Amino acid sequence: MHFSDERPAVDLTYSDVFLVPRRSGITSRLDVDLSPQDGTSATVPLVASNMNSVTGPRLAAALARRGGLAVLPQDMPLQDVDEAIRWVKAQPVVWDTPIVLPPDALVSDAAALLPPAPGHGIVVADGGAHIDADDIVGVIPAERLGTALPDARLGDLVRGRAVSLDADDVDSPRTAFDVLTAAEAEIATVLHHGHLVGTLSPRTALRGSLYRPALDADGRLIVAAAVGINGDVAAKARALAAAGVDVLVVDTAHGHQESMIAALRTVSALGLGLPVVAGNVVTAEGVADLVEAGATILKVGVGPGAMCTTRMMTAVGRPQFSAVLETAEAARAVGAHVWADGGVRYPRDVALALAAGAASVMIGSWFAGTIEAPGELRTDADGRIYKESWGMASTKAVQGRFGRLDAYERARKELFAEGISSSRIYLDPLRPSVEDLLDMITSGVRSSFTYAGAASVPEFHERATVGLQSAAGYEEGKALPVSW
User: Which end of the chain is more exposed for a tag (fewer CB within 10 A), N or C?
Assistant: First the structure.
């Protein structure tokens, strides 16, 4: 990356900078390869952060299906993490994971899982874990849920037989799209040897032609998981590896400390053969020490997250663009990579993080307000749909993390909690799914690459040119919701 003028002496955040267009030979956004090339098998440079309100198995599978990577939080009990990893590995790669409810379930049960958004639906079926074609009562488009009474039975809402596809007959995304369009089907079931294996919508078929899934050596979806730096780190790391995790994240708020270095050396000595991510850091010195201890990827960012109060509480942190720029340069010198963690609000911020040298960009609250994020959908007094989000150092997170302590010790820890404990993250009516957000983000980033004349992430690191702007310059770039 280059500055259009002299490198500034002050630290910068994403709003302070912009990308300068350069002569480009990239003729199409589809010619751009977004693979982070950081030792993972991800094919888009987006990572869902290890926050309890952001990443669960449902979001992890959806993100990996489109090439991204999600990190299961370290606060999850080991048995739950093991189950989540194995669940992700069992999900379909080409089809969407079906949401199945029995005929006697109510509309209110379905509404807790899906908003009335096009392209989604509930498979109404009898049976247990393995559903045959004869068990399927029908499919209810999600939009139908928005017009039904909350206490209506799903079985009573089914109209006709579901449109079904045989997995062996769908040889390309175009074939699937044409079949669904001809049948005028919003969503169809996909069967293999008479068993339900997934669902498919026209948009899912289109995405199949635009994204490459992130897969392990056995052709299954990838998933990462985090461990803290306390307790038996070696035992948990071994258990995660045995469950099939693809990337191990050793995580704490202040990554440049002795306990992190010790934990990294412990994990490195296990020889698990996995990429090891560690953080968070914001300096070249932090990168050097953690790479020497065994990290191959560094998480970068202290205080930029929407749920984080660290900078206001402690004055500790660093403007994120400069933090990524310095740490990426240091990591590149020793053969490591960085993930920019936090502070992104728009696709432009993702592009700027990559321009500064990040291999991937971690996203938290932005993904918390999606269908696939953990937790039930809720509706406020105005009828707007939201999910709850909270910081990982907040009182709510501390209560979950130390719930087994006695009341006195737990209360002592809560005195030092930081971060927002409860925040409503409203679903974007136009982009309620994490896949919808991926479409928007990757579209913007691909365009950024074409403006820079870069066909890959490493080329973007080299060719990106960045300028400084005033607050007025930043405001000038925003679209106006109404005419002036």
Answer: C
Mean predicted confidence (pLDDT) in 333-340: 98
CATH says 2-92+214-372+430-476 is which class?
alpha beta
% of the chain surpassing 90 pLDDT: 79
Q: Is the pLDDT of residue 279 over 70?
A: yes
Please report, for residues 93, 128, 210, 237, the alpha-carbon distance to residue 83 in angstroms, rounded to integers and kept in the order given.
Answer: 18, 18, 30, 15
**pTM of the entire structure?**
0.91
Report yes or no: 250 and 276 within 8 Å, Cβ to Cβ: yes
Helix (H, G, I), strand (E, B) or coil at 101: strand
CB 144 within 8 A of CB 160: no
The bridge status of strand 121-125 relative to strand 136-141 is: antiparallel
Q: Answer for the pair 82, 107: CB distance below 8 angstroms, yes or no.
A: no
Is residue 392 predicted with pLDDT exceeding 60?
A: no
Give the pLDDT band of residue 308 (cuts 50, 70, 90): confident
3-state secondary structure of 237: helix
Supply the residues annotated as catalytic.
308
Give pLDDT, residue 129: 74
Residues 6+ apart with CB under 8 A from 429: 117
> Which H or E element spans position 46?
strand 46-48
What is the fold, at CATH topology level, of the domain defined by 100-201? Answer: CBS-domain (3.10.580)
